[in-house]
Design brief:
The complex is a heterodimer. In chain A, 38% of the residues are buried. The longest helix of chain A has 38 residues, at 160-197. In chain A, helix 2 crosses helix 10 (216-244), helix 5 (108-115) crosses helix 6 (119-143) and helix 8 (160-197) packs antiparallel against helix 10 (216-244). In chain A, 81% of the residues lie in helices and 0% in strands. The two termini of chain A are 19 Å apart. Chain A has two domains: 1-31; 39-248, MetI-like (MetI-like fold, Orthogonal Bundle), CATH 1.10.3720. By secondary structure, chain A is mostly helical. By secondary structure, chain B is an alpha/beta fold. Chain B folds into two domains: 1-59 and 144-245, Rossmann fold; 69-142, no CATH class. Chain B is built from seven helices and eight strands. Chain B has helices at residues 28-36, 75-88, 97-110, 126-138, 156-173, 184-190, 224-244; strands spanning 17-21, 47-48, 51-52, 60-64, 144-148, 176-180, 193-198, 203-209. In chain B, the strands form two sheets. In chain B, strands 4-5-6-1-7-8 form a six-stranded mixed beta sheet, sandwiched between helices. In chain B, strands 2-3 form a two-stranded antiparallel ribbon. In chain B, a hairpin with a 2-residue loop joins strand 2 (47-48) and strand 3 (51-52). In chain B, helix 2 packs across helix 3 (97-110) and helix 2 (75-88) runs parallel beside helix 4 (126-138). The radius of gyration of chain B is 18 Å and the shape is globular. Classes of the chains: A mainly alpha, B alpha/beta. Chains A and B meet through helix 7 and helix 8 of A and strand 4 and helix 2 of B.
């Protein structure tokens, strides 16, 4: 089996195995469906509610991506600033670390206070969670430029801006693209957290409603959808990373 | 900040190569950066081509132990990077874009890398990368080539090949060379004048003229004269090393 195929088949096989164990264990251990429904029941409910699930999934996807795009923009700017200037690094980096250590779920109530219940807090939470990895990776890429390379270019009369453009930016790209897959996952988590607490749409909201109705199957269905979306988003950006910055990987 | 150099005074004749040898921490690399204008002297002055150095000297090529090629560029694109920068800065030394390729290919041919234009740096061996790095330092035909332990990371045989290559390039292009090295044989092979430095702060302790005929051969390194010179320099460096340790 090719290593490529292996990396696809192995996790799927493990997942299938777990589902089978789960399916068998629920009736065998006499677990009540309301506590832990069997996978088959979950899938049935998912098919029945496919329409609403698709609607809420799309909503979550849109809020995630808006937050993500904004985070990439700010993350790039901040990263370039911190990476290029030692002063900016000294002044801002500790603040960034401090900000990043605030659990973002704690910020959601404040966002709801300011912007009301809906998509805006979800977008903002996604944004707040996602910009940090982008900023840090870009900054690291710029700050670790080899001094020899800088010297080679400076004796040619290269300006700081030229060194940044010709070497700094391309050199940072592998780290930037690596950060995108982390950032998109974080944005997704942010959206769902916010939806669970204060929204009227999105998978997070769907799950909150299902849970308050004791509709355990639908709540689990939501979890599956979330997991699938998370994997797809991560995978998408992992593929883009390989395509764009393949030179950074030695074979 | 500790003082790197003290009372260092010397002149380098155009078209020759001088070498600086000495224990670690004797300020050899600082000296190179002073010549290149990458750091400013706290006292005294450096002049290149009769002009006092006030900022990065432009007619200089540099190569280091680490070849620092750009991994996202092909060999050819790595070589033309200096030309891109000169062109953007409207530097009179920037050749017409149509000539870039030809010039890079010719240079690659000289260092035995003909046909490697479109290879990626990661596909090259250490010796090949160092050759590309040397080519990049020479692509804009600088009058002064500054080398900071350029061959230190290579195996002994590749290193000797690089010495011969360096000699060939110098005979063709007539640049002035400044070499910083730990390798005494390298210094004897490549330089006309060798400065032995002592550490803390760095000073010139001894000066040796190497009077081997050129073009030099590796055989000459086994001559009585060369071996005596290498032994002398060893003895001069060893006590200063102990003092540092």
């Amino acid at each position: 089996m090719s290593p490529h195929l292996r990396r696809l088949v192995l996790p799927l096989a493990v997942f299938a195995g777990l589902v089978v164990v789960w399916e068998v264990a629920v009736p065998a251990l006499r677990i009540q469906q309301i506590v832990l429904p069997a996978p088959s029941g979950i899938v049935r409910t998912m098919v029945q509610t496919a329409g609403p699930i698709a609607f809420h999934a799309r909503h979550t996807l849109v809020t995630t991506l808006i937050g993500f795009v904004a985070a990439v923009g700010l993350g790039l700017l901040l990263g370039f600033l911190i990476g290029a200037s030692a002063t900016a690094n000294d002044a801002l980096y500790p603040l960034l670390v401090g900000f990043n250590s605030i659990p973002k779920a704690a910020v959601v109530p404040m966002l709801v206070m300011w912007f009301g219940i809906g998509a805006v807090p979800a977008v903002l939470t996604a944004f707040l969670l996602a910009f940090f990895p982008v900023a840090v990776n870009v900054a690291v890429g710029l700050a670790t430029l080899e001094s020899e390379l800088r010297d080679v270019l400076r004796v040619l009369g290269a300006s700081r801006w030229q060194i940044f453009r010709k070497v700094g930016v391309p050199r940072t790209m592998p780290l930037f693209f690596a950060s995108l897959k982390v950032a998109v996952s974080s944005a997704f988590v942010g959206s769902v957290i916010s939806e669970t607490v204060a929204s009227n749409a999105g998978i997070g909201y769907l799950m909150a409603v299902a849970a308050s109705d004791f509709n355990t199957r639908l709540a689990f269905g939501g979890l599956f959808v979330l997991a699938a979306m998370g994997v797809v988003l991560y995978g998408l950006f992992a593929v883009i990373e390989r395509r764009v910055t393949g030179w950074a990987y030695t074979e | 900040m500790t003082q790197a150099l003290e009372r260092v005074s010397l002149e380098i004749e155009r078209g020759t190569t001088v070498a600086f040898v000495g224990p670690s921490g004797c300020g050899k690399s600082t000296l190179l950066k002073l010549i290149a204008g990458l750091v400013r002297p706290t006292e005294g002055a450096v002049a290149v081509n009769g002009l006092t150095v006030a900022g990065p000297v432009k007619n200089v090529g540099m190569a280091f132990q680490n070849p620092v090629l750009l991994p996202w560029r092909t060999v050819l694109d790595n070589l033309v990077l200096p030309l891109e920068i000169l062109r953007e800065n409207h530097d009179p030394r920037a050749p017409a874009r149509a000539l870039w390729r030809e010039r890079a290919s010719a240079l690659l041919g000289t260092v035995g890398l003909a046909g490697a234009e479109h290879r990626q740096p990661r596909e090259l061996s250490g010796g090949m990368r160092q050759r590309v790095s040397l080519c990049r330092a020479l692509i804009h035909e600088p009058a002064l080539l500054l080398l900071d332990e350029p061959f230190a990371a290579l195996d002994a045989f590749t290193r000797e090949e690089m010495w011969e290559l360096h000699q060939k390039l110098r005979l063709q292009r007539e640049f002035t060379g400044v070499l910083v090295t730990h390798d005494l044989r390298e210094a004897v092979f490549l330089a006309q004048t060798i400065y032995v430095m002592s550490a803390g702060p760095g000073r010139i302790a001894h000066v040796h003229r190497v009077s081997l005929d050129g073009p030099r051969t590796l055989q000459q390194l086994y001559s009585t004269e060369a071996t005596a010179l290498i032994r002398d320099m060893r003895e001069q460096i060893r006590p200063t090393r102990r003092a540092v340790a």
